[in-house]
Amino acid sequence: MGRNNEKNIKKHNDKLHKAQAKKKQAEVSRKEKLKEIVKKFNESKNEE
């Protein structure tokens, strides 16, 4: 019984992919928030 059996590899990969997905989702939401901020800034600038 080694450490690199199928069950442990799958568990590790699932954890890794979950972390990567979480990181990617955070990046996407950050970009969306930035777009909204820029949009609001441009609107307020146009009003002046």
From TrEMBL:
It comes from the Bacteria. Residues 9-23 have a biased composition (Basic residues). It comes from Flavobacterium procerum. Residues 1-32 are annotated as: Disordered. This is DUF4169 domain-containing protein. The lineage of its organism: Bacteria, Pseudomonadati, Bacteroidota, Flavobacteriia, Flavobacteriales.
